[in-house]
Design goal:
Layout: H1 9-21, H2 28-35, E1 39-49, E2 52-62, E3 70-76, H3 82-98, E4 104-110, H4 119-135, E5 144-148, H5 154-167, H6 194-206, H7 210-216, E6 226-230, H8 234-247, E7 250-256, E8 259-262, H9 269-279, E9 289-290, E10 304-307, E11 326-328, H10 337-345, E12 349-351, H11 353-356, H12 359-373, H13 382-400, H14 406-412, H15 418-443, H16 450-469
Helix pairs in contact: 1-3, 1-16, 3-16, 4-5, 6-8, 6-12, 6-15, 12-15, 15-16
Length: 473
Amino acid sequence: MSNHKRPSFFFFFNRNFDKAAIHTGLPKGLLDQIKACNAVYQMRFPVKVGNEYQVIEAYRVQHSHHRLPTKGGIRYSEMVNQDEVMALAALMTYKCAIVDVPFGGAKGGVRINPRNYTVKQLEKITRRYTAELMRKNFIGPGIDVPAPDYGTGAREMSWILDTYTTMKHGEIDGVACVTGKPVTQNGIRGREEATGRGVFYGIRELVSHKDDCKKWGLTPGTQGKRIVLQGLGNVGSHTGKICQQEGDMKIIAISEYEGAIYNENGIDITELLKHRKETGSILNFPGTKILPSRESALELDCDILIPAAMENQITSDNADKIKAKIVAEAANGPVSADGEAILLKKGIIIIPDMYLNAGGVTVSYFEWLKNLSHMRFGRMEKRFDQNTYSNLVTAIENTTGKKINAQEREFLTKGAEEVDLVRSGLEETMINSYNQIRETWKKKKSIEDLRTAAFICALNKISSDYLAMGIFP
């Protein structure tokens, strides 16, 4: 089926919503309210590019106001359209609910290919987009807080921050208007790796349950698991590095824009990233062979397939060729609803995007809290904890008559840095959230997949908020 005839991501997303909704027992009116996008801002604005003016198409969608502010990234892509942004905003609502982050969902999109613009031109576009959001009250620390997404990063967030604080001079919480900022501009340590780290924690938790692994024909734990990774952007690269370094997993193939490579003995992601920086491509990395196509990597025999690129990568066209035991959705919507039906029929486990890639919004929440408190995490307690641990170690040494070396003392008495607290909070979030989903999955025998269980968890939490408002008696 050709791309232009395939139903939209929004269509598939709503179909998944309906599939889960029938299990909740919630009133139709309440479900309709949860499902609806509350506000859609479609804009066009001119930007001078070279000697010409271009009219830029852009969007900001606030899906749900059951919690404020709304929260969601901004993507720069030629594929941006209103349906896609609405679907991604809805996904953010359920994502935030699943990981107990008190935001409504939102999303933004600018329909450009950032590769076609200079840094100065991208800055112009970003600042004008921010001004348009401010004009309609679609941005602010208590209103709507953007973040990075596909095609954007800390640089673009710093431009948004500067534009907002210039136009809202003196607003005491102004730096909380956007997250994903550089650390030097009130960002938070650990944000860049957050989504990838969350993906690792989610996979690790899934394979920690021995009974489930036995049923799926897998050994428990991450060690030695063979991974195929699609996408080597921010999410894919951090996922790959952390899976290798902390999970002792083996990445046997990588698919990227320029092609796909394979090595059954494993590919060192850190060295591959260096190679790509030097050559501009993952191809011809020593020890690897080039696969016939980018898509063929997805069809390799492996334990875990991690699509970390764009939506609709696994569809009815190729789902029957997938040989992975687990598909871990690091990207948003990489498996279409028709593709998912085929994977489930084959007994493949899908870790849904609305849970698995929620590490980004979780750490964005920590950044937002940091900005509102006007103080970095760990500043108050780090030295106190360090001194307490040091006194305990000294007391044990005096009692036992044995001294430990300086390196061991430093390890045992270390007070928590900001990045340690961020990682700890993220790990706690991903573990608790997965177990809530798993409990729902196990409790209802009629639920065949984790995505439906995740939706049900989210719907129950969101409905509780609406019912508490007294809108639905």
